[in-house]
Design goal:
Radius of gyration: 18 Å
CATH class: Alpha Beta
Shape: globular
Structural class: alpha/beta
CATH superfamily: P-loop containing nucleotide triphosphate hydrolases
Largest sheet: 6 strands, mixed
CATH architecture: 3-Layer(aba) Sandwich
Distance between the termini: 41 Å
Strand content: 15-25%
CATH topology: Rossmann fold
Number of helices: 7
């Protein structure tokens, strides 16, 4: 099933809308990993989610990425309510609306940067090799790596490999870029360069949600939400860095 993107404008729906969302795991006693979470992320937002290990960050990531289902509550992704979707519909919606960036780059070592970016559409059912190659080059241009499109990952720095991963996530112009500890494998200089890239993407209207334990990363976001024991609290004013 294909989900056409909603019209973009003042009345366009939030990219993420969670209402009273809970995720409980069976145990004795039951483990409530997410507790009555309310969260709205609008198009063009740059949101950081911070919290210690065991706070519920990974569960939230899995739910937002349509990799897990909430026990109760609602989750609308870019205007599509996900509660009643079957597994195939969730997979299609995830492929069309979410780009993922992880701590590990997950690049195929014997494929060029361009070919690695193209894989996003091959796996997502995209058709047309020539058009796919053109879109991959455009995505690499967007992250400043078009000049290295034919390089293998072994010839790229860690920061460049993560940029290739970001370009792959941008293929198809997803509604949401969902990032899990994206700077975890980078040194301070490459971390700063990646954060500059995220700022540029935000200025282009890309919606970013970054899960991180790094204060330097979260301070660069427009908004910051802290999660503890499954409860989300938005930090405001002086608590959020410039």
């Amino acid at each position: 099933m294909s989900y056409g993107s909603p019209s973009i404008g003042p009345s366009s729906p939030p990219v993420i809308e969670l209402r009273a969302l809970c995720r409980q795991y069976p145990a004795t006693p039951p483990v409530l990993a997410l507790r009555d979470v309310d969260l709205t992320v609008r198009r063009g937002d740059h949101l950081a989610v911070v919290g210690p290990s065991g706070s519920g960050k990974s569960t939230l990531l899995a739910v937002l990425g349509l990799l897990d289902r909430p026990t109760s509550g609602s989750y609308a992704l870019d205007g599509v309510e996900t509660a009643g979707l079957g597994d195939g519909e969730r997979t299609a919606l995830r492929g069309q609306r979410i780009g993922f960036v992880f701590q590990a780059f997950h690049l195929l070592p014997h494929r060029s940067a361009r070919e690695n970016v193209e894989l996003a559409e091959i796996h997502g059912g995209g058709a047309g090799r020539r058009g796919r190659s053109r879109r991959a080059l455009a995505a690499l241009e967007q992250v400043g790596l078009a000049h290295r499109s034919d390089f293998l990952p072994s010839r790229l720095s860690g920061g460049e490999r993560q940029r290739v991963a970001v370009a792959r996530a941008l293929m198809g112009a997803p509604a949401l870029l969902l990032c899990d500890e994206p700077t975890g494998n980078l040194d301070s200089a490459n971390t700063e360069a990646l954060l500059d890239l995220f700022d540029d993407l935000r200025d282009q209207g890309v919606t970013l949600l970054i899960i991180t334990h790094d204060d330097a990363v979260s301070r660069r976001a427009m908004r910051r939400v802290r999660i503890a024991d499954g409860v989300l609290t938005e930090e405001r004013g002086a608590e959020v860095g410039a």
